Amino acid sequence: MPAIVSKIGERIAILRRQKGYSQTELAKAVGISREAIGKYERAEATASVDTAKRIADALDVTLDYLVDESAAPSFDKKTVERMQQLQQLADKDQEHVFAIIDAYVRDARARVAYG
Fold first, then answer.
1. Torsion of CA 103, 107, 110, 115, to 10 degrees
2. 39 vs 24: CA distance, rounded Å
3. pLDDT, tens digit, for every residue of 58-74?
4. DSSP calls for 25-81
5. Is the full-model pTM beyond 0.70?
6. How far apart are the C-alpha atoms of 56 and 104, rounded to whole Å?
7. What tens digit of pLDDT does each residue of 17-60 get?
8. Residue in 67, 63, 49, 53 with CA at minimum distance from that of residue 9
């Protein structure tokens, strides 16, 4: 269990730095103390599920990504929200959106390959 806690703490620290937040700024956004953020990052304490969710929200990632070391970093909160919105579209509309995405990805790969 300590290895998992350590991974969560490491991930919080990395994401916080990527966002350019100090421990104090993240703590303020989450509504907890700076000391608590430090303890989570050093694996000296474990955040409750509610606090972990608020930390994930403040860092613009999903709770899954924050706590699951195998979660894909590319699935940030905005990506997940968009995927959920896509799932609500009719099948035909989903096909159109995916065709546009596929075309864009294909073109971007071609630019890289021939650029």
1. -170
2. 13
3. 998 888 888 887 666 55
4. HHHHHHTS-HHHHHHHHTTSS---HHHHHHHHHHTTS-HHHHH-TTS-TT--HHHHH
5. no
6. 30
7. 999 999 999 999 999 999 999 999 999 999 999 999 999 999 98
8. 67
Contact between 41 and 23 (Cβ < 8 Å): yes
**pLDDT 10s digits, 87-115:** 999 999 999 999 999 999 999 999 999 97
Q: End-to-end CA distance of the chain: give it in Å, rounded.
A: 47
User: To which H or E segment does residue 94 belong?
Assistant: helix 91-114
CA 75/CA 83 separation, integer angstroms: 9
